[in-house]
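Predict the 3D structure for this chain.
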Amino acid sequence: MDNHHWQQRKEAVIAKGMGNLASVYITQADNMTLSDVEGNQYIDFASGIAVTNTGHSHPQIIAAVKRQLDQFSHTCAMVTPYPAFVELAEQLVERVPGNCAKKAIFLTTGAEAVENAVKIARAKTGRSGVIAFKGGFHGRTNLCMGLTGKITPYKAGFGPFPNEIYHLPFPNTCHGISQAHSLNALEDLFASTIEPARVAAIIFEPVQGEGGFYQAPPPWAQAIRRLCDQHGIVLICDEIQTGFARTGKLFATEYLGIEPDLMTLAKGIAGGFPLSAVVGKAEIMDAASPGGLGGTYAGSPLGCVAGLEVLKIIDKDNLCDKASAIGEVMKQQLETLQQSFPEITDIRQLGAMVAIELSDPVTHKPLSDLTKQLVQSAPQAGLILLSCGVRGNVIRLLPPLTADMDEIRLGLNRLRVLFEQLVK
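Done. Predicted structure below.
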C-alpha cells in the first residue's frame, strides 16, 4: 500500500486537527535517513522536531530499552520506583547550569513539564501571575496555549485561556524589537497591569523554537534574572527544544550567563522515547506537597534508561562539539545559497539549531507562501524540512547530531535544488 492510500486511511480516522506535514509513511529510520512504505528515502532535517538528537534508532539506546522491556515496562514511579528513575535525576541535577543544590521530577511531555514548572512556582511564591513572551511556544494544553505567544495554529479557536498570563515583546532585531524595548515593556507591565508581588514566574526560551529560532541576548537574560531576584519571581527557562547538545552546549542557557530557578526539559532527553522533566533549585522544587506532582506514566522506565544512554552518547561522541561543527558547515553552505537567493534575508545558527528567514528583499514582507511551498515540496526532493516563525516565513533545520557531514551537505544541496525550482 503506497503513501497516498495510507494518507486516505489516516484522514478517515484521525481528526484533521492532528495534521501531518509530509504525506509519507515511515517504515524504517536509521540515524539521518527515513524510509517510507514505497521504499523512498529521505534526509531528515527535522529529527522528529529536535527529538532524535542522537539519531534515529541509535543501537545503544535500542539495546538499553530492549533490556528494560525484558524486565518490565511500567510500575508507576509514584507507586514502586526503580533505579533508572533515580539515576537519571542524579545525572540531570549535576549537569544543569548552576552550583546550588537541585532536584528533579519526571513527566511524559513537554507541556506537562511547563505546567508543572508553573505549579511549582506558584506553590513556592503563593502568587498567581505568569509572564511569557510573544513568539514563545510552551505546549498545546490549555495553560501552555495561554503561555504561547503565537496564534496560528496553536491557539486559534481554543480560548478562553487561563487568567493571570501576560505577554511581552521578545527582543528580536529582525522584527525591530530591541532589548530596551522588551525590558521597558516589562517595567510598564509592573507599573500598569500587575504588581511584581503578584507574579509567580517569568518563562522564556533561550532560543525561541516555534517562534523562529531567535536567540535571547545574554544582557537581556541577565537583566530578567536581576528583576526576578529583586522581586522574588521564579525564573523558568524552557529548554525543551534547545536542550541536550542541540545548540553546541548541553543546555542553551549556558550561553546566557544566568542560573534559572527551574528548567523544563523534553524532546532530546530520551532519544525518541516519551519523557520530560523539570529540574531546578531544591528549595523551590520542594515547595509542592507530596502527591502534588507526577502522573501515571511520568518517568517511564523505558524513557529513563533511554535518557541515561543519551547522556552517555553525548559524552562519548562529543555531540556538543559535533553540533557546533555541523552548524558551521550548514551556515557556510547557506550563506553561499543566500548569494544566489536574496529572499534568504537572515541566517541564524546556534550549534545545530539553524534557521533561514525568507522575506522579499525589496519590501521586506515575509514570504510565508514560498516557505510553505519549500516545506511541502521537500519530500519530493528526498528531504524533510520544518517551518516556524510567527509570520510563517522561517525554515528550521534540525539534523541529528550524529549525522555524517557528507549527508548534511547532500541535504543542503537538495535544498538548493528546491530553491532553484520554486524561486523565480
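The longest strand covers residues 344-350.
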